[in-house]
Specification:
The complex is a heterodimer of chains A (509) and B (366). By secondary structure, chain A is of the alpha/beta class. Chain A has three domains: 235 residues, Rossmann fold, CATH 3.40.50.300; 168 residues, Rossmann fold (3-Layer(aba) Sandwich); 76 residues, no CATH class. Chain A is 33% helix and 26% strand. In chain A, strands 6-7-8-3-9-10 form a six-stranded mixed β-sheet, with helices on both faces. A six-stranded mixed β-sheet of chain A has the order 16-19-20-13-21-22, with helices on both faces. In chain A, helix 6 links the parallel strand 7 and strand 8. In chain A, helix 14 runs parallel beside helix 15. The longest helix of chain A has 19 residues. Chain A is globular, with a radius of gyration of 25 Å. Chain A starts with a strand and ends in a 6-residue tail after the last helix. With 366 residues, chain B is mainly α. Chain B contains 16 helices and no strands. Chain B is globular, with a radius of gyration of 21 Å. Classes of the chains: A alpha/beta (509), B mainly alpha (366). Chains A and B meet through helix 10, helix 11 and strand 18 of A and helix 10 and helix 11 of B.
Chain lengths: 509, 366
């Protein structure tokens, strides 16, 4: 008799020629929080999809509570007490929380009985695990954090003893993530088993009891969290020494490139998203914009990139008044021509067209450039050659300019966007969440490129919710809170504590 | 294989084996229906193929219908690449016909062929584009759904044309709802005549120079959509509107221009019908070509080469089907429509029906 909730042994799974999982061994102790970490494409999600019945393993055995089982679909997984919270929620936006939870477990023609029973049960679950979800709220109107809790409730309602969470914090603010972790600890205290898929080392260190580290489809380590530190985990994940700090030479900033005065933005709902924002960026410096997600950073970035208009205020770039200037084409295109490049926060939604090949993505935003056309036609061969060159410079994999962008991993997609914007040789680079969803090896690379760009005398505005990133890259750090700049700290003096205080400035916590 | 997952089939198999399987499935179901009403399916198939490709006249008619379908298919594809589903090709072709009619009636007594023909082509495109412009504007600036507006505009165009032909354009003293015959200086040169000029004898069919116009349109379509800045913006707007906004594209403008191009292409189908064949405007000359264009574009995967092939298929079905219905009293015009419908169902709606099976075979083969 063992104390394992889940035992996987010898799991193999291939897609065509690609082996996504090879001889995977993993045991998850009952009543523990078990982390699975690895870079993008290491095979974490495939493994969990096998456990949840989406895929069938080519070989290997699964034991649940010491009984060997075959899981052919998700219904069988649910029957075995396995629940899953996906990265992209499977909820009906227009239904209430209660209706969503009953969905798929209606049990009868008339809904009212199921709903009544569910309401009682839900209340009990809500109390037991401190989930604080209103059963009558409409799901579409809830924030991301609450929607995730609805997903957790859904799994618990179906009697899950083992809960799999796939990258649960990717969409959460730090506060929401903290709340999620409190919930997970409560679940553990109540005897549930939690499996957490992530590639954030900090989360693993904070909350898990044991970790399985995956690399290229194989398990490279099954360790107790208390026996390792972050650096060791990172080395295991990447398979080589990783430098988590950025080496950054001292650098004297030059002339003011961008100057923002009294910027205000009122959105369609009448909320003041930006309030009296003032700052400057000089040539040859990286200015970090820190803050909890949703405090106006995204909107500021969009205004500066010309994708939306501020309500009032002044923006001057070099000697140009960007607000009063007359534009004969969409502003985003005009600003690009002036030398303002923009790496958007959401690269897969905005920064790339996934259905296009890489060489077509390399001109996105620069499609009007005459030098890449002969008459009305694009110089395809030149574009492919240029793309091949960028692929080599930025170590983008796989190295095929004709490949569709959607087939690349998140980190490589980000490199494509970054390569395109850096190739344009901008004087000002606006960059949002440069390493969101990017694996450690690529983060290191992207950080080095940004510092190199700074040393070449370019001005960079870096928006990120990762404090570590902001602190290691920025020469100056601005902190945003509730649409205001709540403070400024020199990069070398910054501490997480000081920034945290400013981030909370004016907010109740 | 779950829904929405990318296909694991190699691309060449997707473009060859899959459409053939779909076509065979459609023909099998048709065969069963034919057998049920008491006809011999194999004999009917033979008659249909013979009717479409078996003799000179049949081939001529097949290519004549193909010309219509290439234009309307390209029209649907042009809008599709901008993410718009234009099912108003019917009305746009109809209005294109109005443009031609007005031009011819006004100028065929004054202008020579070489001036009148370009004028007619322009008029067909401008009227078709103008008719598409209104739903496009509503979509781009007011968010009215293009599917709803274009289909409504088909009905409006019917009524408008009925009124115009019945009350204003009708030949004086005639009982038929048609205009007077166009002057011969406005006729698109017939294929028979052109072939005779170089000493080749062809049977008398409505096939005319519009066929070459359609092939040229395919070439231009390919170059514009895949090799120019405008095509790039078109496809970006169609696949990822957020990226288009990020890239500084004028999304409403792209939508409007795409729909106008689509309407202009649909308008050209009227050239084939009015200037190439009937030489007069009559009620209902479009006869469903706009809707077949949707199927043609769908089956041709919105690529000119695919569109030529699927237009040829539907051209053959139309011509062969007509021959078949003459030869077999049990096979009515409706039966031919059923065949077309089944082809559309299997090749459009159920295009991935055999995909998992085929993917399995491919996997085992390796």
């Amino acid at each position: 008799m063992t104390d394992f909730a889940i035992e996987l042994s010898g799991i193999c799974k291939s897609f065509g020629a690609v082996a996504a999982n090879r001889d995977v061994e993993m045991n998850v102790a009952k009543g523990s929080i078990h982390g699975i970490i690895g870079e993008n494409g290491a095979g974490k999600s495939t493994l969990m999809s096998i456990l949840y019945g989406y895929y069938q393993a080519d070989a290997g055995t699964i034991r649940v509570n010491d009984v060997e089982v075959r899981i052919r679909n998700s219904q069988e997984a649910i029957r075995l007490g396995i629940g899953m919270v996906h990265q992209h929620f499977m909820l009906v936006d227009t239904f209430s929380v209660l209706e969503n939870i009953v969905l798929g477990a209606e049990g009868g023609v008339l809904l009212s009985r199921a709903l009544g029973a569910a309401r009682t049960h839900l209340k009990q679950l809500n109390q037991e695990y401190g989930l604080e979800v209103d059963p009558d709220a409409i799901v579409g109107k809830l924030g991301v954090g609450l929607q995730q809790r609805v997903e957790i409730l859904k799994a618990l309602y179906r009697g899950a003893d083992v809960l799999i969470l796939d990258e649960p914090t990717a969409v959460l603010t730090p506060q929401e993530a903290d709340h999620l972790f409190r919930i997970l600890r409560t679940l553990k205290a109540q005897g549930k088993t939690v499996i957490l898929i992530t590639h954030k080392l900090r989360e693993v260190m904070d909350i898990t009891d044991a970790v399985t580290v995956m690399r290229a489809g194989q398990v490279v380590g099954n360790v107790r969290t208390s026996d390792v530190d972050r650096a060791q985990l990172a080395d295991l994940m990447v398979g080589r020494k990783v430098n988590l700090r950025v080496d950054k030479p001292e650098h004297e900033p030059g002339a003011v490139v961008l100057s923002v005065k009294g910027l205000n933005l009122v959105d369609a709902r009448g909320v003041r998203v930006l309030q009296d924002v003032n700052f400057q960026i000089r040539a040859g410096e990286i200015v970090g914009l820190a803050g909890v997600a949703g405090n106006g950073q995204s909107e500021l970035l969009e205004v500066l990139a010309g994708m939306s208009e501020a309500t009032s205020g002044e923006i001057s770039y070099k000697d140009l008044d960007l607000v009063r200037r007359k534009y004969r084409e969409p502003k985003a295109a005009a600003l690009r021509k002036l030398g303002i490049a923009h790496v958007p926060e959401d690269r897969s939604r905005e920064g790339l067209v996934k259905a296009f090949s890489l060489y077509e993505n390399v001109i996105l935003g620069y499609q009007c450039d005459r030098s890449i056309r002969r008459g009305p036609f694009y110089k395809r061969r030149e574009l492919v050659a240029r793309t091949a060159q960028l692929i080599a410079q930025f170590d983008i994999r796989p190295d095929n300019p004709l490949l569709r962008a959607g087939l690349l991993s998140g980190g490589n997609q980000q490199k494509v966007v970054l390569a395109r914007e850096i190739h344009a040789d901008p004087d000002l680079l606006l960059i949002g969440q440069p390493t969101r969803g990017v694996d450690i090896g690529a983060i290191e690379f992207i950080h080095r490129r940004l510092v190199a760009l700074r040393d070449a005398g370019k001005a960079i505005l870096l928006v990120s919710v990762e404090l570590d990133e902001i602190m290691s890259l920025s020469d100056r750090i601005l902190v945003m809170s509730c649409g205001r700049i709540s403070g400024e700290v020199a990069g070398k003096d910054a501490s997480a504590m000081a920034l945290g205080l400013l981030m909370g400035g004016g907010e109740k916590h | 294989m779950k829904l929405g997952q990318p296909s694991t089939l190699p691309r060449w198999a997707q473009l060859t084996i899959l459409p053939v399987l779909n076509l065979v499935a459609a023909l099998l179901v048709t065969g069963v229906v034919t057998w049920l009403i008491g006809e011999n399916p194999l004999e009917c198939l033979k008659l249909l193929i013979h009717g479409a490709f078996g003799y000179g006249e049949g081939i001529g008619y097949t290519l004549f219908y193909t010309t219509d379908f290439i234009f309307t298919g390209l029209a649907v594809a042009a809008a599709y690449h901008a993410g718009l589903f234009n099912i108003g090709g019917e009305g746009q072709a109809y209005l294109g016909g109005l443009g031609i009619t007005l031009t011819v009636l006004a100028f065929d007594k004054i202008l020579p062929f070489w001036l009148l023909m370009p004028l007619c082509l322009m008029a067909a495109m401008i009227f078709g584009a103008a008719w598409a412009y209104i739903p496009a504007w509503l979509q781009a600036r007011r968010g009215s759904h293009i599917v709803v507006t274009t289909i409504m505009f088909n009905f409006i165009s019917y009524s408008v044309m009925l009124y115009l032909i019945g009350h204003h354009l009708i030949e004086a003293g005639s009982q038929n709802p048609t205009t007077r015959e166009f002057g011969a200086n406005s006729w698109m040169p017939a294929m028979q005549g052109m072939a005779a000029a170089i000493g080749v004898h062809l049977p008398n069919t409505p096939l005319n120079a519009s066929f070459f116009l359609a092939l040229i349109a395919c070439g231009v379509f390919y170059l514009v959509v895949w090799h120019t800045r405008w095509g790039y913006e078109l496809r970006t707007v169609g696949t990822n509107g957020d990226a288009a906004r990020y890239a500084g594209m004028n999304v409403p403008k792209v939508i409007i221009v795409a729909m106008c191009a689509s309407g202009a292409l649909a308008g050209l189908a009227a050239v084939n019908e009015l200037l190439g064949s009937t030489h007069r405007m009559n009620v209902d000359f479009t006869n469903g070509i706009g809707f077949v264009g949707v199927a043609v574009a769908l089956m041709g995967r919105n690529h000119p080469v695919g569109i030529i092939l699927s237009a040829l298929l539907f051209g053959a079905l139309t011509q062969g089907g007509l021959d078949l219905s003459f030869a077999k009293p049990l096979i009515t015009r409706e039966m031919v429509l059923l065949i077309e419908g089944l082809v559309i169902l299997f090749c459009g709606g159920l295009e991935n029906l055999f995909e998992p099976m085929l993917a399995g075979l491919f996997k085992r083969g390796k």
